[in-house]
Write a structure and sequence with these properties.
single chain, 259 residues, Undecaprenyl pyrophosphate synthetase, binds 3-methylbut-3-enyl trihydrogen diphosphate, six-stranded parallel β-sheet, 45% helix, binds magnesium ion, alpha/beta
């Protein structure tokens, strides 16, 4: 085998040379603990968290990051006390209303990924409206994962492919990675280059599973409401200092970068 890349799955040299990630995915964790530390109810932390969202969206737009994906509510978060769940729904509803115009003004396309059918009807309507308003914006994509689970995403993709196979449109044994990727919620978008989790836990919590296969992971103890621009810059600096190898050796990557 030669030293250069000679496989069907070639490494994109652009990915190797890029110091700024094309796609950043974030688990915004630590709102509750932030509030608790100030002896305030958890919802206060969630509210402050919305302000952090605003700042991170702004930073990504300024840096020309193509895609930002935020984990807002997991498929497991329904297990929380009913009161917290309903307050979170309320916050989601008002934030959708209030922030969408700002996103639109900034040429940002909003996508809500996850199982919408579990949400109250008024939220579902708001989601459709917000996505439609921003559908043609091409400055950046903001994916908000709400009632999202990485396992759910793979299951719904599998169901679609199985239905196609049953209709005779595809052959089951010819299903490829690309075909699965094409049915996932973020199809057509690049996979995340940088994953950030605030709040100190070092786990994926059923966020993106398939799409994180080669993502650079960054964990910080900083709680989401306290995650400011300088904290975001630290994550970006860490990313810029990494060597992504995609299975190759470091020497091969150096050669490719300098080619
Ligand atoms: C993340 O913060 C926001 C949601 C999951 C909705 P948490 O609410 O999980 O905050 P902690 O982890 O309890 O501090
Ligand atoms: C993950 O945070 C989900 C979101 C940030 C929306 P959690 O706080 O729910 O994760 P676990 O339960 O600690 O793993
Ligand atoms: Mg948490």
């Amino acid at each position: 085998m030669s030293d250069t890349v000679s496989h069907d799955k070639e490494v994109d040299v652009l990915d190797l040379n890029s110091e700024i990630p094309r796609h950043v995915a974030i688990i915004m964790d630590g709102n509750g603990r932030w509030a608790k530390a100030q002896k305030k109810p958890r919802i206060i932390g969630h509210r402050r968290g919305v302000e952090t969202v605003r700042e991170v969206v702004k930073a990504c737009r300024e840096l020309n990051i193509e895609v930002l994906t935020l984990f807002a509510f997991s498929s497991e978060n329904w297990r929380r006390p009913a009161k917290e769940v309903s307050l979170l729904m309320e916050l989601f509803f008002t934030a959708l209303d209030r922030e969408v115009k700002r996103l639109h003004r900034n040429n940002i396309r909003l996508r809500i990924i996850g199982e919408h059918s579990a949400f109250p009807e008024r939220i579902q309507k708001r989601i459709v409206k917000a996505e439609a308003l921003t559908a043609d914006n091409d400055g950046m994509i903001l994916n908000v994962a709400a009632n999202y689970g990485g396992k759910w995403d793979i299951v719904q993709a599998t169901q679609k492919l199985a239905a196609k196979a049953a209709r005779g449109e595809i052959e089951a044994d010819k299903i490829t990675e690309e075909m699965i990727a094409a049915e996932l919620s973020m199809s057509g978008q690049p996979d995340p280059d940088l994953f950030i989790r605030t709040g100190g836990e070092e786990r994926i919590s059923n966020f993106l599973i398939w799409q994180l296969a080669y993502t650079e992971l960054y964990f910080t103890d900083t709680l989401w409401p306290a995650f400011d621009r300088s904290e975001f810059d630290k994550a970006l600096t860490s990313f810029a200092g990494r060597q992504r190898r995609f299975g190759h050796t470091g020497d091969q990557i150096e050669k490719l970068r300098n080619a």
